[in-house]
Amino acid sequence: MRERDYQIAFYIIFSLMGQFVQTEVVSSKGMADCLVHTDDTVYIFEFKLMSSGTPKEVIQQIKEKGYAESYKTSGKKIVLIGAVFGDGIDEETSGTWESCNL
User: 10 Å Cβ neighbour count for 3?
Assistant: First the structure.
């Protein structure tokens, strides 16, 4: 599996739920993997594979790359989500998601 596979899956799921979804959203320092816009919240997702870091490191990347900057004046809540995917769900991969409010 590749990060892009997860990105496509999230796009399809949230689109089918009727949410406005964007992928590969460009900021001045990089690209966010997936953004989900609801009436009151912007969810910023960054996906990594197991060997690419921890959820805390992924959230740090979101902050360092400024993926949330253009949404700070929207009046919406901003939630950063770092997701690290492995080959299966077991003891090692159970803590592979982390989120924080900005």
Answer: 15
d(C-alpha 30, C-alpha 99), whole Å: 20
The CATH code of the domain that includes 72 is 3.40.1350.10
The pairing of beta strand 20-27 with beta strand 77-85? unpaired
Please write the tens of the pLDDT for every residue from 66-93. 999 999 999 999 999 998 887 655 555 5
List helix spans (H) across the chain. 3-16, 55-64
Q: Give the range of the structural domain holding residue 54, as residue numbers without chain letter.
A: 3-101
If we measure between CA atoms, which residue out of 28, 18, 21 comes closest to residue 44? Answer: 21
Domain tally, the chain: 1
